[in-house]
Known about the structure:
By secondary structure, this protein is an alpha+beta fold. It contains 2 helices and 12 strands, in the order H-E-E-E-E-E-E-E-E-E-H-E-E-E. It has helices at 2-23, 116-120, and strands at residues 27-33, 36-40, 43-45, 52-53, 58-61, 66-71, 76-79, 84-93, 98-113, 125-128, 133-135, 140-145.
Amino acid sequence: MRIVAAIVTAFILFYSHIASASDTPVGSIKTLKGKAAIIRGGVAVECRIGSRVFRDDHLKTWSDGTISMVFKDDTLLSIGPDSEVVINEFLYSPAEGKLSLITRLLKGTSAYLSGIIAKLSPGPVRFETPVAMVGIRGTKFAVSVEGESE
């Protein structure tokens, strides 16, 4: 009976850790112009300056929209008109050595300025597109993807 209780307790602790990780904001919207939305779990939520951004969120702009966001490690990400970016992963726990940032540009344009994660551990920082992947080594860049989003 104790073994079953220990297994159940371990599962609950493990599951709550995973669930709480996605409940933690990875950053926030810094600037906003025109029409834009945060798509969370397939549902559009209001996007405004100060809106919190979470892992797995899609940041979407329309023809008159632009967004910039700042991650908790001071990484800056700007998204141009008619664009969509997914925040696939963000881990920022330097004391534990857990550092990772993975984003995916589905369509449109984006500019990136690296923050603390890329400076401390550039290996786990990636910016993906439908046709290529950029490994970040502490820098800035802009990228454009033409066509429809996936």
